[in-house]
User: Fold this.
Amino acid sequence: MKKFAVVAAMATALLGSTAVNAADVEVIHWWTSGGEQAAVSVFAREFDALGEDKWVDTAIAGGENARSATLQRTLGGDPPGAAQFNISRQFEELAEGGLLLDLTPLAESEGWRDFIRPAAILDVCEFEGAIYCVPVNIHSWQWAWASVPAFEKAGVPLPKNLDEFIASAPKLQEAGIIPFAIGGEAWQIGGAMGVVMLSQLGKAGHEAIYKDRNLEVAAGPEVANAITIFKSLKTFTDEGSANRTWNDTTNLVIQDQAALQIMGDWARGEFAVAGEQPGVDYACIAGPAENPYLDTGGDIFLFPKQDDPAVEAAQLKMASMMVNPQVQALFNNAKGSLPVRDDVDMSLADDCMKAGLEILKNPDSVIQGASIYLNQDAIGQTEDLWAELWSNPDLSVEEAQQRFVDIIASAD
Amino acid sequence: MMTTEALAPSAGTSRIEDGPRGAKPRTLTLSRVGVYVFLILAALFFLMPLWVMVVTSLKSMPEIQLRHIFQWPQQITFEPWLKAWDTACTGRDCNGLKPGFLNSVKITLVGTTVSIIIAALNGYALSFWKYKGANILFGLLVFGAFVPYQVVIYPLIIGLREIGLFGTFPGIIIIHTIFGMPILTLLFRNFFAALPPELFKAARVDGAGFWQIFFQIMVPMAVPITIVAVILQVTGIWNDFLFGTVFAGRENMPMTVQLNNIVQTTTGVREYNVHMAATILTAAVPLAVYFISGKWFVRGIAAGAVKG
Amino acid sequence: MAQLATAKEDGAAARPAAGSSGRKPFRLSTLMSIVGTMPMIATAVGVFFICIIYSFVLSFTNSRIFPAFGADNFVGTDQYARLWSTGRWLVSVNNIWFFGLLSIVANMTAGYLLAVFMDQRIKQEDLFRSIFLYPFAMSLVITGLVWRWILDPNYGIQATVRGWGFEDFAFAPLVNSGTAIYGLVVAGIWNGVGVTMAIMLAGLRGVDGEIWKAAKIDGIPTWKTYLFIVLPMMKGALLTAFILQCVGVVRVYDLIVAMTQGGPGISTQMPAVFVIQHITDRSNVGLGMAAATMMLLPVIVLLGLQVFVQWRANRVKENA
Assistant:
């Protein structure tokens, strides 16, 4: 490590480059598209405005690529000053290995526990009583996006839950509309299945399975129902669904060729770009259920330990800036996500976002996604299972459920 | 392998002028037409995706959403091309593809040169100067070619960290040399092994040593295979993204990082026209290399044949 | 790999002067040869040998994100047991044989065919060569997307041909679990056949002109000369192209991620995708390394076979 530092210092001196000054903080993230760029610029601008410190931007597209780069560079002794991760267990080994800056004193002095809501998103950052990351936004999977003209054309009302939707799907099909739009990528299928499961299990059942690993619930009728619903949704999709990206799928709803897509709240951006109005051209249905639950996925930032105390001071400043109420408002308005605290001005938010904020206010409607409770390995196994279920009509409900129970039983 | 002593220099030269062998009627015969029909059909198959990319890159987003993928744009716009090069956002910076361009050129130029010189030496030594254990080394190398990159990334990170080259320009060059070595060595070894052994024997009789034979005889002979090596290496290094992000250090990030940032977005909106333009723009350099080096291909045979 | 042995023996037989064994006195040129191949020695031993041992050892641990070698990390063959009871891995193993066989045969055939046609004194050789090669230069992220569009039943070839009035035309390999792999083969050939063609062309042009004269005098038809006389003479080029294809097949990753992501379902999963996903995003390095070790097993067997064959040959020589 020392040798590296010496060589690095020499190289810097020789090249006269501006490499990493004392107060430069390099930030690795995967926000690379136009809208995401606007959001990350809020952070960078606000951080630079704090003083001498500089936000040095390293954007690497694709979550897995960016996360791998952070992990590998940390191991290589050249960690970034800050790095984006998801709200999940992706970074637990960094924290356990003592490679991350401890944010506990900052969090305590600013009272993060008091204003960050729901509390669970801060729990994710906590290892053995110390806080190692900052949650910056909330995204939820539990949304259905419906084409209003498509439902009008078929003469059926907008569904309020999945059962209503399945009941009206044949009519949509008769009207020449693809009832259920989905892209066949594993993460889209897995995500949609998660939403279907939650709609059947409710909060209690969801927590029983993932948090308490209750195998009876996993083997129970709700999960069987969810699998059955999922299999019937498959019959209402189109031939081209295999391997379609989620954007192309959303586009089918925008073009009114398809009636409904289950996708996280980031889909809103596609409608906005296409100039569609919520309530007129499209509808966002939370849940989709009468009593919708939202999970609180989203992004966090963590700060790998640095040798330089000046960088460490800047890292703490950055962490504090990210949860600042004004910054939260600006950032989340640009990103189209929900803020991690209640006291921010979201007057610019559209109707769908406001509906989401309303649901988040009630702690009973907020759940933790499966990825908080299960590690990535188990999450991946369930994703494989649902992908196989989706494409293989011979996989029976019973067998799929048995395999699901096995995954939960062996999950770490 | 036939001996080449009978092959007079003139024969070699005439081969170049006449081009390849086979039936060579000057007039247009049926078989000639057949050859061209086959090549043109094959070319159409190969060009189909490029056609889709080009027309898509010239369309506006609303037109793309209509999804007539083979159709010429109703209204041509060059906006996506400008955006891809100049203003597309990759993270906080909105400078398009251009910032990493020079880094990519630098890495590709040095990386290709170093790895090809080393591989040519390996292939030469393995063909003519086999020492004890050389075959085992080569076996290990070929073996290494089958290992997915990601499997060996951690030991490499630790190794480079220990010698202080992690996240530096020499570091990324070393990485490309290592991963190019198995295939390139194989390429040169098989090429040299197929050369007439009389060449080597004659040089030995004349008293030439290891380096002399390499530089004076083997290097000029190896031009055709070097071109294949250049094609492989330029493409591999230019398109590398994984190693660039991990080993190159922030200062040396290649252009593909920006390309990937533009084309690979998870939760953002996808601008397909910009993606297509960016892809074609990024591929322009390897394409130029193919086109230019292809001409040397013929010249290389000339050099080899004359020497032979 | 068996061919590798033949080629090596050919070389050795043809070149007895090229001092290959330690029985001969140690010469300066041998030293030079070692000096000249230092980078190879360092890479073969320092990188690949160590890395293979390293991943092999890791496959017996429960490492998650970072490699962990602690005493309590060793879990015996648990990872292998899990690997071979994972449906997705079993599908991957089946796929790689099928995909590999099909795409190598198709690629070599198409590559040689193109090379032969390119060898017919084509005036626009530069142009055609670039057309066949260009796919190799393109990022697979986007070309995968373009192929997906082309093969999409709603907008691609199928829709276009139906638009011409052939209502029953069906061509959408990617949508079906049983046919998706053929779609991958087509795109794989599109991407890689140019390189095979370039190697074959280099091989063709390396063949002695005298052969052609002799064949002509004997009145052998051109196609027969290409197939029965020239082709067997291009062992080096064929071997190179073949190994290149094998490596490409074993490591196939980008193509899958760009075109099918292993779908529909898990029908186009491949071993390399399994390995890479598990050592990165799925945070199960132990299982990923177990899979990587299994991937290397066929290669080890083939290389071992070659060593054995060589050893036998040497013994026979010594006894004689």
In short: Chain B touches chain C through 120 residues (CB under 8 Å). DSSP finds 14 helices and no strands in chain B. Residues 1-25 of chain B have pLDDT under 50 and may be disordered. Chain B has two domains: 13-80, 98-307.
